[in-house]
Structures are given as structure tokens and as C-alpha cells.
What does this fold into?
Amino acid sequence: MKAKPFLALTAVTKSFVPGFPVLQDVSLGFRKGEVHAILGENGAGKSTLLNILFGMHQADAGGILLAGREVVHHSPADAIANRIGMVHQHFKLVRSFTVAENLRLAAPPAIRPSLRRHADIARLAKGFGLDIDPRAVVASLPLSMQQRVEILKALINQAELILFDEPTTILNPAEIEAFYAVLRQIAAEGRAVVVVTHHLNEVIAHAQHASVIRRGQLISSGPVAGRAREDFVREMVGHEVDLSAPLPNSGLGRGAAELSLRDVTLAPTPSSSGLKHMSLDVHAGEVVGIAGVEGNGQRELFDIVAGLRRPDAGSVQARRQHADGRPVAGLVPEDRHQEGLVLDLPVSVNLLLNKIGEAPYARGGRLMHGKITAQAERMRADSDVRARSVHVTPRILSGGNQQKIVLARALNEDAAIVVVYQPTRGLDVAASEEVLRRLRAAANAGKAVLFISSNLDEIMRISDRIVIFYAGQAVGEVGRDASRAAVGALMTGGAHA
Amino acid sequence: MPFDAITVSLLLAAAVRLGAPILLAALGELVSERAGVLNIGLEGLMLFGAFGAVLGLQHSNDPVIGLLCGAGSGLAAAIMLGVAEAVLRADQIVTGIGFNILAVGATSLLRQVALNGSYNAPDLRAISMLRIPGLDHLPIVGRAFFMQSPVLYAAVVVAVLLWLMLRFTRLGLIIRAVGEGAEAADAAGISVTLVRFGAMAFTGLCAGVAGSYLTLVASGGVFVDDAIGGRGYLAVAVVIFSRWNPLWILLASVLFGFADALQYQGQEIGLDISPSLLLMSPFVLALVAWVLMGQGNAGPSEIGQPFVRGRK
It folds into this structure.
């Protein structure tokens, strides 16, 4: 018989809209010393579950038992007092503060004196295997480093149960390994660790216990050992899905070059290598995958093709260009909430944001709402955006549906070029598949797709060619049939495969 | 043009004297803004303070009690405003402007009901003048910096303390966090509502003293309708102009005080500029400040945004 759970949820039910429960009668226990994974699609209720545990929401029915004693978390403060820590998916960091200031803000009184000096903070962080510069301003750090700050916050809070909401979506493979090494250490020191994720490989490799939630209901909960990957997928999605097969290309070969970058150079920054004499062509009908460890020039590549930045040197040529020389391209930026959508404008406007100022959607400075709505309805139906109507705001939609809007707009652009950056970040299995399938279909129909991602599995499945970035340069190019190991070696600066 | 030492000295002294209420109000506003509240109601808070000070003075004949009543009135008014903006999360700009209009009407009505129009103020020197022996006879700066109201000296001390507080203390860290990343503060178990409410209460206290200064120190204990005359808005501009730094507020307040002083003394010193243009000068400066707000990102990033937990 195993040890009693440190924390247990008893028959928790929660609905935000009466009659539509997000969680229904969910009972779960989390033990110390264990990494407990909660698996489920987006919208399955995983995040709501964490939010209830952490006091961001309160359950309608059911409760929380902490070491056998009933507790109520009215706010995060209550949860923190009960030694629960949380690493949020959307970081709860003060972006204009330094790392040290963020840690001091979150630290309990007993810990604060030990955080007074930067050197002490650096040493403390190193002790947890998380190297970081305490003086760095959070906004200037790449996302993977920002996440370290979040993890450190929970660790210095001496939490006995740490909740992680989709912690690895923004990490590259090496960072994911390091991340789970930290988790193992945390659990081994006698803490309970809960990871909400939909990355099955990680669960199988690193978690001891897994619970699957689908549409608000607990499907299964038990040890991971001895269970097959396909089992979990079926439980999560509700039917069989093949997640490893390459997505077929059209077999017609590629067309003319739609986008050509020649000797493009951009100055490096503390968090990125910039670009150094980078040359790249993307042809109609192909998907070019950009693989690399984050911070090796991917952001710069996206910004340049998107026209957000000008290269310091070199040329960018596209078949269709704006009057000022920027390429006309459909864009799927990295951060849906900040760059991809205007969260508080209707779905219809978001779908047509790139064309809203031109006929037939605007005439003589007047928006033609009838035309906008009609076209948006068509796009919504085509893209399967699940929203009550095109008049609701994207803020209330799930991440998958938000991304479908961004993607629909990018594919609707009057250009053959489509540039995507981390297009499946934070999306679940079904939504990710949908995004990849649509992008592949667009390429097969003649678009030139530039696919920038830190998810190597995805890149290998969708791309016709894979260009590997290292230190701001394209250090290698491989075809669809290349091995993971070869790409991995190039990503970390190894010799040409 | 008679630009001799005495004229300069008098002009500088007037600038500092008229800068004091702006300094006090701006320091209060600073704390609200650093906590993420754009407290437009500053003008109204000052007006309630100004009225409360004269009411207290008339009933007690004691300027110190008048000052305390003014501070209390500002605080009480700020609590009303804080309930609306910090607790009920009303739109800060709309509520603030509405509050200012309410303040003009309410104090005008209360003046007719509660104030004695023919009241003779007692000696107000207890709060209007404190000579610093030895320094007050220095040429030029003596009159400007060492023959001023004790309230002004206190304000300078408060400015320095605020600077230290914001920079080096946990309270300062919390206030800045609430203004820069309310969600992060909330996740750290800090009550954003309480911090913002407290910041607004402090603003009310400062604005109350600033209003009291205007009636008790600068106008001899007389309250007239709309006694603040836009200085609350000037103080909001000063905060922006000073890039949310209390030490710069010290300097900027004197600058705005100087612009204010020109209205009265511009002609005396022989400036050949129309008085109505001089009257405008502080507001032109303020306009520049508001325009500067649009540039750069130095301001608290959550300013003006009500905090609602769980809003993605």
C-alpha cells in the first residue's frame, strides 16, 4: 500500500457557465516524492483544476484535503500559506523588474534575508541547477530563462506541492531534460510535483503517476509504468491518432522561389545570437523547417520576414512586396496574445485584420460590417473555429481556437509566403495536429511555408527541407528522411552530418 | 529690466512657495501611479482638503488644527474614490474626472452653508513660516529655501523618504510590483486591491495637506470656489514630467511653481509678455508632460488598468 496522498481533491465540480461544467466530480490524490502528470486536451479542465488548487478559482462542489484536513483556498495567498507553489503557463512575473526583484517579491519572510545580495541569489539558483543572472531584467530574457525565474520562485517559497502548468511547451529538448532533472530532484527531496501537460513522451519518460482528464471528467489515474503511449492518446482524445507519421507532401516538387534572403546580418543581443550572413530560399509548394535551440536567430528571421525589423546588411526579396520593400507574407507570430490577436476585438475583425482597411471591407473610410461578417463567417466555418459567433472576442476562446483564427488570417493573406513561429506552442494534441495539417495542406496547394519551431518532432514531420540554425547561421540542411540525431548534433553546434 | 539679486531672490522664493502644494500633491499622486492607479481625482482631493482646512481653522482658530482637518478631509475623500477605483474597479479616468466636478460643486455648496464669509483669520505663522537660523540670510537662496513653511520642509523630507522607500524597502517593491505587474503581485499572495487602496489613501492625505497649504499658507486662510484652479492636474503632469521619480518631482515642482509665480510677478519684474500668456505657462508645461507620457515606457505598465484576477 502506498503512502497517503499529501493533497487530495474530493469530487470537485466547477462550472463558469451554469449547466456547462468544466470539471465534473474529479477526485485525485498527489503524493510526496512523486511526479504526477495530469494529461488532457486543451479545454479538458486541467488548468481549471490547477487554478482551484492554487486558489485562483473556487470549486462549486467538492473540496481540497491537505494531509487529511479540509482546507479552503480563497486566494493564492491561502494556497501559498499551505505550502503550495505554482509555475504558471503565462508567467506571473513583473516584466520590468530584475530577476532578483521578482524573487524577493515572491519570497516568504524567512527567506528574504538570504536574497538580499545578488551573489547569494545566483548561488541559490545554481544549487537548484538553474543558472541565472539575478541582475537581468525579466523582459529582456528569453522565455526559457523567464521560466527559470518562475520555477525558482516556487522553490524558494518552500512549497511542498508544486504545480506546473504546461511547463515544457517553450523549452527545447535539452532544456526539457534539464527541467525534468530539476523536477526529479524536487520530488526526491520529499515534495509532491504536479505537471499539467499534453506532451506524452515526457510523461512516459519522467512521471511516476498519470491522470487523464477529458471534457472535465477523470478518465484514469494510476502509475505510468507499464502503460503504452497509445493508451494515453486514446484516453485523452477519445479515439486513435497517429502522432509520428510524416505529413505527406504533394509529390509534385517545389515551384519558383517566393522568398530569398541573401547574406542577412543582424547584430546579436544578450539573449540572442542575431544573424550572420544568413541566406535562405523558400519555394512555392514546400515547407522549410527551421530547427535550432532558441536564441540562435529564429526570432530575428521571423522579424525580418514579417517586416518588423530591417537587416543591418543583406537583402530580402519576395515575389510580392509592400511599397516599402517588406515581403507580403501571412504571419503566425510566436505570442498569440500579444502579437497574433487583438484579444478584445471581435473574432470577425481579428480574422480580417490584415485586410480591414481595404475594399470590400472598408469603403471611403467606413467599415462594411456586413461584408466583414459574411467573410469572417466563411473563414470560421473553413477553419473550424469553435466560437458561438464571429462577434465574440478571442479572449474567451481556447488556445487552439485562438490559433485557428491567427492561422486562418495568415493563409488568407494575398501572398504565397506563410511564416509561422512556434505555431503549436501551448496547443493540445488535436489542435496541434490541426495546425500542422492545415500548414501542410497550404504548402501542397502552392504556398511557400517557413516553419520556425523549437519542437523538433513537428519540424521533422511537416518539412520538406530542414535548415538548422546555430549562432545566427544556417549550419546545415537536411531532407525529410534525415535522422533526429543528425539534426540534434547540428543544433548544438556539432560538425556537419 | 531690474534683474538684481533681490528680484531674483523674490522670484525664486515665490517659485518655491507656489511649488510646495504641487510638490505635495505630486508626491501623493506618485504613490498612486506607481501602484497602477492614474489618480485624476487629485484636483478634487486637493479641493476637499482646502475646504476642510478652512472649516477646521474657522472652528478652532488654530492653523495646525486647520491643517490636520484639511489632511483628514483629503483622506476621507480619497477613501470614497478608492472604494470606487481600487475596490469596485471603476474606470479610473471617468471616475476621477467625475469626482473633480463633484468636488467643485460640493465645496461651493458647503462654503455657502458652513463657512463664515467675514471670518478674520488668526496669525497663521505657525504653519506658514519657519526661518532656519543662519541660513535664511544667505543671498538669493536664503529667502527661497530657508524662509518657507514647515509644511514645505516636511514635503522635502517626504520626497526623500519616498525615494528611499520605493528603492530599498519591501513596501516599495510591493507598490512597484502592483503597478508594473499586478498579476505577479497577486500570484505572490499580495492583495492588489488593498495596496492600491492604501496608495490612494496616501494620495488623499498628501492632496489634503496640499489643499490646506493653498488656503492656509498661500491665501491667508480664505477659501474661494475652485481654490485649486487646475494645480491638481499640474501635479499629475509633474509626476509624468519627473518620470515617476520623487527626487525629480522636487525639481519639477519648483519649475512649475516658477511658471505659476510668473503669473503674479512677471509684470513686476518687467517681463513684456501678456499676463494671459503667463497665466497659461504652467499648463503649457503640463501639456508637454502629457505628450511625453506617450513616449518611452518609463511609466508603470499597469497604469490606469483595473485589476481583475484571471483575465488572460
